[in-house]
Amino acid sequence: MHRTLLDFAIAGFPKCGTTTLYKLLGQHPELNMAELKEPHYFSTDIEHMHYVKSENEYDKLFSSGKEDQVRGEASTWYLFSKVAINNLLENNSKIKLIIIVRDPISMFLSLHSHNLREGYEKLENPIEAWKRSKESNTSELVPTNYYFLCRYAPFIKIVKTQIEDHQILILKNRELNNNLDASLFRINEFLDISEFVYDISRQRENESRSHKNAYIKLLDNKTKKLRLTRILRMIIPSRIKKKLHKYIFLKNTKKKSDVSLMEKLFSEDFSEEYAYLNE
After folding, report:
1. Which residue stretches of the chain are H helix?
2. What is the rounded distance in angstroms from the CA atom of residue 276 to the CA atom of residue 67?
3. How far is CA 33 from CA 3, 11, 56, 94, 202, in A?
4. 229-273: per-residue pLDDT in tens?
5. Under 8 Å CB-to-CB from 243, ≥6 apart: which residues?
6. What digits encode the pLDDT tens for the residues 97-133?
7. For the residues of 5-68, what is the DSSP string, one character each?
């Protein structure tokens, strides 16, 4: 195990822009990004997220690339794993990690919306969902354990004791949204790859969306449970998918003021997380 060389990983966090970055970096001719996002090969202790289990399977994710390309992948739960970082270092002592951080309240709202859409969450009121998560007082790694997942500062502190600072790049979600070119320039320097003009026309991925009504939501969740979603995405042309999205989903109308209001309602101390956001 771990003979497959990996040069870098987008290691966190969920709902922080990792999908967008993963797809953008896949455009760079000097990078060989794993064909599957979220393989979680190195987080062997998170069984339900450990999708790629064998070295042979993992190696195949890079089979379309060239030998001289820089290998990268994105698994956003690596920092929550107790063994992933050690496994990554065993694979490559010079491994580089890209970590994306986001305002924890905004991160929670996006994660909660995503879980409602995917059928993981039953509580539509975000305050109630947060309180339930907080009261459960568990470190269980499930998508609805918001209190544990969105208080991410301790996990960054831990990884900083395991890996040298020059092997870690912390990016802010707001900078990816507001100044993507500058963020990509930093990444190019960090990975020691040449400058490249990325196609950023489709830069926003995995946006939070709400279904237009309960019947559409039920049908969408049924297709996911039957594992039909991925098949449908492959066979339906892009132009038709765009039209379907207009009929199925409401536009995301969340305003910045919503985040401020939620922060007052939560009365939580996120000072450690904001320290990374304000660096």
Report:
1. 18-25, 55-60, 84-91, 104-118, 126-136, 146-149, 153-162, 173-178, 180-191, 214-225, 229-235, 238-248, 256-266, 271-277
2. 36
3. 17, 14, 16, 17, 18
4. 555 556 666 666 555 555 555 454 444 545 565 666 667 888 999
5. none
6. 999 999 999 999 999 999 999 999 999 999 899 999 9
7. ---EEEEE-TTSSHHHHHHHHTT-TTEEE-SSS----S-TT-GGG----SHHHHHHTTTTS-TT
